[in-house]
Amino acid sequence: MNAMNPANAPQHVRVRGDLDLGLSRVCALLCAIGHPERTGFRTGGILHIAGTNGKGGTTAFLASLLAQPQPQPQPQSQHKVVVATFTSPHLIHPADAWRINGKPVSPTDYDAARAHVLAQWQAATMSNPATGPNHAHASPTHFELDVAASLWYFATNKCDYAIYEVGVGGRDDATNVFRPSPVLPCTCSSSSIRLPPPNLLATVITRIGLDHQALLGDSIQSIAWHKAGIIAGKGKAVPCIVGPQTHPEQVVAAVDDEAKRVGCERVLLVSTPLVNPHGRLDVGVSDPPLAAPVCVASIHKLPTNVVGYQVANAATAIAVLAAINRLPPTNDMIAQALAKTVWLGRLHHLPASHTLPICRGDTPVPVLVDGAHNTDGATQLASYLQSLAPVSSTCWIVGLSSGRDPHAMLTAFGIQQHDTVVCVEFEAVEHMPWVRPVDRAQVAAAAKAIGVTQVSNDTKTVQRVWNVKREWVAGAGRVVRGSMARAVWSQPRD
């Protein structure tokens, strides 16, 4: 890879660890490295995804569908499509957020790319004391640096497609750099301004619910306004696809308002997907003002990994690629791509043979891990669990992020009085110091308040939880990151 050695990175430049929304700093980084978001991805394009829940799953399905091999008249001329994805937060290491064809980049490449971009930015701003690298407000945040460095890395490695998941909100999120340049705070020279606009293919809005209210507002309307800020105004050339919603009226109203404001003339709504008893999925899409949805694809037998809320994510991904004419040509190919999709920590069943340091006992216990971290996600998880064969009891391992109401979350999970609840705290998240755990004692108190009698917040309990005689173990919330994630999904790296 063409990157400087991270050991040579500018040592005195402080990368900020806070959460500070805005586009000026990330645009300065992109200016310094020649705007890879505009020069790269010309052989494929860019997809930009916002939403409260479902962004990661939709991204994973999109990547699999785009990378699905398709028949060619001459096999030797087959071009292997290269798909890059940028998601957040990371699972184990920050490099996990950058993937090429499903494989995370190495920590070495991750560090080197960030160091390269930081050095270029420092050189470009050194002569301006008002906005230079030592100016507190000019220094980029870790997330802003990740966005710019990942774009440079993906473009340098000649990725065909880039799929970018919004960090927080959308309108002022550092990923929102793919719209036409006049709306961005770009300070480049006139030669840079003459670069082509980003090759943005579509914007996507997944399910919207209440989350990050301190930053985005306390209502669905306010949050939807922030999410809709990624919509690009290029007539019918860049459609906005809206996935199935819990609050469709408020979300669609906010999307329509933004689309009219910026000049997006094609907003497509994905119908709530239904899977018939034989496993058939018909993906319906409506194009207002037309009322009746049109079926854009039919999967005759949905793969077994596409369950629960992931059905809506898969349907959204199919609808997106149908809208931009990038869908695999046969329904069998679509099903094959869906079957190969893996998104760790979301409705993830661990095999009975999985060996964990905490997995002991005479009888294998079914284990489900899900990263539901807000009430809407918790409700979706509960709905999926209710669709399974009934069990007499479940052992829950729960860790929550600060700002969540433990009582509301446990209620949304559908935890029963005869279940067991083990309350844990996740460790510090690298580069994200604002993400902190709820005190496990508060989670335990909430569990007891809803009538659960078998509750533990002893840190050692999680090490022996698998000895509890329960029919199910469910890990939920932020507990799926950090130490538990390392135990479950440790992956070899280059």
Short characterization:
With 494 residues, this protein is of the alpha/beta class. Helices cover 31% and strands 14% of the residues.
Mean pLDDT: 85
Per CATH, the class of the largest domain reads Alpha Beta
> Can you say what the CATH homologous superfamily of the largest domain is?
Mur-like, catalytic domain
Shape: globular
Percent of residues in helical segments? 25-40%
Poorly predicted ranges (pLDDT <50, ≥5 residues)? 355-360, 463-470
Description:
This protein has 494 residues and is an alpha/beta fold. It folds into two domains: 318 residues, UDP-N-acetylmuramoyl-L-alanine:D-glutamate ligase; 137 residues, Alpha-Beta Complex (Protein-Tyrosine Phosphatase, Chain A), CATH 3.90.190.20. Helices cover 31% and strands 14% of the residues. The protein has a ten-stranded mixed beta sheet, sandwiched between helices. The chain has a six-stranded mixed beta sheet with strand order 11-12-16-13-14-15, covered by helices on one side. Helix 1 runs parallel beside helix 5. About 3% of the residues have low confidence. This is Mur ligase.
Keywords:
magnesium, 16 strands, single chain, 2 domains, 10-stranded mixed β-sheet, UDP-N-acetylmuramoyl-L-alanine:D-glutamate ligase, globular, Protein-Tyrosine Phosphatase, Chain A, 494 residues, alpha/beta
